[in-house]
Amino acid sequence: YPRRHAPETQLSEFNLTEIEAMLGSYTKVLFVRDPFQRLISAFMQGMGSSPSFSSFVQDILDGGEHDASETWKPLVSLCRPCLVQYDYVVVFGFLRQELGHMLRRAGLPAGSVLPEFTDTQVRWTYSWLSEQMFSELSLQQKKQLSRFYRWDLSAFPFSSSLLTD
Fold first, then answer.
1. In the chain, is it the N or the C terminus that has fewer CB atoms within a 10 Å radius of its CB?
2. Which residues constitute the signal peptide according to the record (predicted)?
3. By residue range, what is the domain housing residue 83?
4. pTM
């Protein structure tokens, strides 16, 4: 599909036959991250104009899913895992393990092409930061966030997410 295929081409611009042929010919990899960690990252990068994390979260909740930025929009609405059969789902925080496995499955030497990852430090830092940020939220905000991300939490293995409680 070179005539229309470019990095910015959306899958929805193709007809159903073309979509099925493309998806059948590619190895499909989905990289996912705990939704609460995505919110923290967006806040820390200054993606909102809110002075506190709690008000940033409230702005997102007030805006709803339809007005949400792709940065914090639920992943299920962005990547359609129920429609697209992904070959691999790679969870942030386990990149070294997951990518090593994928490379071995592809018949490539895993250790020679992987960059250095700091997964262990990142997981510990986000765990600590998540607990601090989570404590700033009201019980109502926590419940609303869990509802906002309910499909992500049920579709992906975020077992240690603070939002699953």
1. C
2. none
3. 11-155
4. 0.77
